[in-house]
Amino acid sequence: MGSRARRPNAVADEVAAAFQHVRADRVRGAQALALDALRTLQRLLARWAARRAILPSPRGLAGAVSRVLEQTQPAMGPFARWAREWRRMARAHARGTWLGRAQVWVRRELHRIRAENSGLGRTCRRRFPVAARHVVTISRSRSVLEALRALPRPLRPSQISVLESLPGGEGRMFARDLRRAGFSARTIPDRDGVDTVRSADLLVLGADAVAADGSVVHKVGTRALAEAAARSGIGVVVIAGRSKFTGRSAPRKHLPPGFDRTPARWISEYWTDAGPQPGRRSLPRGARPPSH
Fold first, then answer.
1. Are 163 and 190 in contact (CB under 8 A)?
2. Domains recognised in the chain with CATH numbers
3. Average pLDDT in the 204-223 region?
4. Alpha-carbon distance 174 to 191, whole Å?
5. Which site in 7, 11, 35, 248 is 20 to 30 Å from 49, CA atoms measured?
6. Hey, CA dihedral for 228, 233, 237, 238, is it positive or negative?
7. Which pLDDT belongs to residue 164?
8. Structural contact between residues 273 and 167, judged by C-beta atoms closer than 8 angstroms
9. Cβ contacts of residue 3 below 8 Å, gap of 6+?
């Protein structure tokens, strides 16, 4: 009986250990971490399917997974949504069908997130303004990279300035990613970000989460950039797949270190894989896309 009582804790420890590398990552963006988390979960499910007889109940297993998901990257929208969905799955399905349903769920989520990039590229091509020759961005967002990569040569900005994003320095990595994709990109010190954005044509942001009120969680320093751009008449665009949209109010609890929340009032548009969504401010005339 003692060994049976230890099983839920053993599974919880197994899940926590499997996700430790995702939890400790402070360099990659939300999309890359979400894909890594799903692949990790896929491996766990395959392992559990092979030893079905010694697993705890679906609720115990889903509870362990949901708690770890919430703690892994608490500022990122997909992780909180997944935790809620795992709890619902455990309540809805019997022990005999639960693992199979969970494996189907992971495959669906992987497909959904991988498919977002093509939609983000279409939206970026449709909305990117010809006049935006100097673009500023912050942090290392795969969504931003893939969307900009989809731009035809005539639409590509002539210069992209990337904040270095200390202490992780992921901005340096992102500038390198952009140069490899054929862009002219430079890294600028974080302290120069506000002054740089005031003379830019467009501020392009990724997102770790977008709340129902339109506020955006992203790398610390994003809020100051967006405010400076908005007050200087510079367009502020958020590029984010629908997996980042939580559909819920912004939580009142404090964000983890390294993140901040940008109010919707400073955002001009959201470019999603389903198309553009208007923000609270209009794009300035010079930053509006060409009419089709």
1. yes
2. 2-116 (no CATH), 118-287 (3.40.50.10470)
3. 96
4. 18
5. 35
6. positive
7. 96
8. no
9. none
